[in-house]
Task: structure prediction
Amino acid sequence: MKRVMTRKLTALAAATISGAALAAAPVHQAPARAASTAPAHLDLGPADLPESRRTTTLQPGVTLTRIDRGTTDPSLSWTNEVAIPATSTSPDPDAPPRSISDRSSAQAEADRLRAKGFDPRVEEVDQPQTADVAAGVLGYRVRVGNYTSKADADAGKARLGQAGETSSSVFTGWDGNDADRGPWHVNVLRIDPRQFTGHLSGSFGPDLFNRETTSQLARSGGATAAVNSGFFVLDPASGAPGDPAGAGVYDGKVLSEAVNGRPTLVLHDHAQDSAVKRLTWGGTAEIDGTRAPLDAVDRVPGLIRNCGGDASDSPTDLPLHDTTCSDPSELVAFTPEFHASTPSGEGREVVLEHGVVVATHDSRGTTLAPGQTSVQATGSDAPMLQGVAVGDQLPVQLRLESGGQPFATPRGTTVTNGGPQLLRHGNVEITQRRDGFVHPGDPSFQYGWFIKRNPRTFAGIDDQGRTVLVTVDGRSAQDLGLSIPEAAAVARSLGLVDAINLDGGGSTTMVVDGQVISHPSDPTGERPVGDALLIRP
Result:
């Protein structure tokens, strides 16, 4: 499967394949090798690269394998990638500058740069073939200069800035070319249920609202090892920071609704029967004898991070990654695990104990005591709670569903959100569009998030039924990271048969015996995250 190819544009007659054309083009994905025939080395870069592995046992049934692959590649360099303003040929002439655009916009930017005394180059960026997106030209980028160090690239960026141009310093090793020789650093935790005597679980700290680092969560949970887990809200404008942006089940408690249809990782305390499953949200509240669907649990009403809600959401009810959909009228349940207080604002809220109303409020925002829950209603849904009085029965069911049926989450169950799917039944099957990683009209999102190399965390199950948790460092010249197609190839070469991508980038972290053994990419160091997966004695 072709991953990512970039090449200098020498004939500007080539046309960009539109998103509609990509969607309509037939996809014939070659079957991947089964996990049982996984190679002895990672499927990453040229086959002749040096690779070393060091495996240690952390506790019964748990091993850590640290893999170093490749060497410093002298052909790689730093460069300046220039933001491309929209032109009249773009779908939206008022669109902000983007890292890649259509051919005419890229060439127009290159012409402006050349007139200012720079020597730009226009490069084609290819979309690799995935299970639901055809291969083709995604767009074109504009770059200036080749530098041996980031400091030199930053100086070039400053010169471009003085000329009124916006750019970023990037390393060409992050482009995802198959011929790149590294280096890569991969950390792999395997939990064998036949020997495991500990506990495998998810943790979010004191509450869902306040984020903590993976190492903090590992230490407070007494974990032997831990990795960061699912996607979560970062920006307060998109909800409560730390709130899982997708399904979240902790010790059997359903505390976050699904991004409907997206894959999730289902784990159990004893590490048996781990699975990748597509789940949907099925929560309900019975009000005055009528069962009404809940929009969510422990989420700020009206803000649906990563979308995938219901038909009343805007702009879509389908998954759309790193997008916050909205809905002015929602019914949302809250638990004490959310925060010290529930979200405040217009609407109504009723407080429950064991399904019985103990308080009603004409506005939203209250403190829940242990054992209490609440239901908030906003917009046109607010009248649903108008006639509710203290003493009324108001049963609430917080549940996920699979295939339209309730999905059981007994005590000891963890469900974490993720996406896209990487492997299914031992074959590479990246559901890029289905899981919301295609933004219509915005090829820069696919380019930066999906195609370019980034730090990655992914997980799955191998052909021996072992749970596998993997982190790959990135965003430096010493840690190239992986594209999503490369993550799928690495997962398969590690012997996984089912796998999904988890939260990556600055969130990617692995902790062993209280120490961070990965290289977090944020300039400020380890990033506070929404939740983590813990392996405890």
User: Anything to note?
Assistant: The two ends are 40 Å apart (CA to CA).
